[in-house]
Amino acid sequence: MPLPPTFMKDFHYEDQVKKMEYRQLGNTHMIVSRVSIGGATICSNFYGKLDFEEARRTVHEAFKRGINYIDTAPYYGDSEINVGKILKDIPRQVFYIATKTCRYSTTGAKQFDFSYERTMKSVDESLLRLGVDYIDLYQLHDVEFADNIDDVINGAFRACLELKAQGKIRAIGINGYPLSVLKEGLIKGNGKFDTVLTYARYTLHDNSLLDYFPFFNEMKVGVIVASPQSCGMLTNRATPSWHPASQELKEIVEEAAKCVFESG
């Protein structure tokens, strides 16, 4: 594979970078590695206690080997702070950073805020925590929890258009789990969204994303497939208690895992 624009000779393992596959993310400026780093694992909120030094070593090694995209969010507890601490020792040229807005906490009355004003404030908070001058991809987080998609478009999305014009962000994304809601958001965004992200939708137990690929291609957005391990359910660890899957599906996956491990 040709070397990506994020390659730095004195930083990377060139032979490893040449083995990595890269794709342009929609019509954005980003030529991203096909695998990336999810910031929900770089916090203490979701997957158990964080070993920060292990996380730091992991991210540094991943970047040296050609991964160039990392995604986080204010919703992921202290993830943005931890990611910022990790990135300060890495040249800005070698990575793309994505974060999110609109979802801020796991509990309380202020979990979500899709307003223009909160989004304008949120971006400065994220820039400070991450220690960067601009964000490559700024995403509207879990839009299905808004009262309606029009509130998202008239509030947070309008703010993102201004932030992009100001240079604080370089691309705008829309995120969520229900694919029909993401489709509605893209239509109402009038072609000004750059990416769409959904999670646990292209896995061993759910391939519904395939039905939406033709539409996403028509809209010319980059498609980000998050959590291919279905938020930890398709691993050899116990499914997290907060996992949104039905109890029936959790039991089926657990039984399948037992069969795999017992068969050696």
UniProtKB/TrEMBL annotation:
Domain NADP-dependent oxidoreductase: 37-248
Alphabetized Pfam families for the sequence: Aldo_ket_red (PF00248)
GO cellular component, one term: cytosol
GO molecular function, one term: oxidoreductase activity
Regions crossing the membrane: none
Entry-linked InterPro entries: AKR, NAD(P)_OxRdtase_dom_sf, NADP_OxRdtase_dom
Protein name in UniProt: CLUMA_CG003271, isoform A
Lineage, broadest ranks: Eukaryota, Metazoa, Ecdysozoa, Arthropoda, Hexapoda
